[in-house]
């Protein structure tokens, strides 16, 4: 279950997130901390998509052309 504050953030167009493939998770964690100055919550993208029916997830990993599995918020 997604944190209610982060869920509302994404529902209202928040853009402080990274989607990534499993083999890119470590890189995404490092970049998120460097870019935003805090540790992210990590969720399975499929679960977030179920909770946020109107939200459209990016279709590719930020670092590769692979299908993303995780979202860091």
From TrEMBL:
InterPro entries per record? YyzF
Q: Which Pfam families match?
A: YyzF
NCBIfam families found in the cross-reference section = CxxH_BA5709 (TIGR04129)
Q: What is this protein called?
A: CxxH/CxxC protein
- Organism field: Aneurinibacillus danicus
């Amino acid at each position: 279950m997604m944190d209610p504050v982060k869920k509302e953030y994404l529902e209202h167009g928040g853009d402080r997130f990274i989607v990534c493939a499993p083999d890119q998770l470590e890189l995404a964690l490092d970049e998120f901390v460097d870019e935003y100055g805090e540790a992210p919550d990590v969720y399975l993208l499929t679960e977030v998509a179920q909770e946020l029916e109107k939200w459209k997830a990016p279709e590719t990993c930020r670092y590769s052309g692979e299908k993303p599995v995780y979202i860091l918020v």
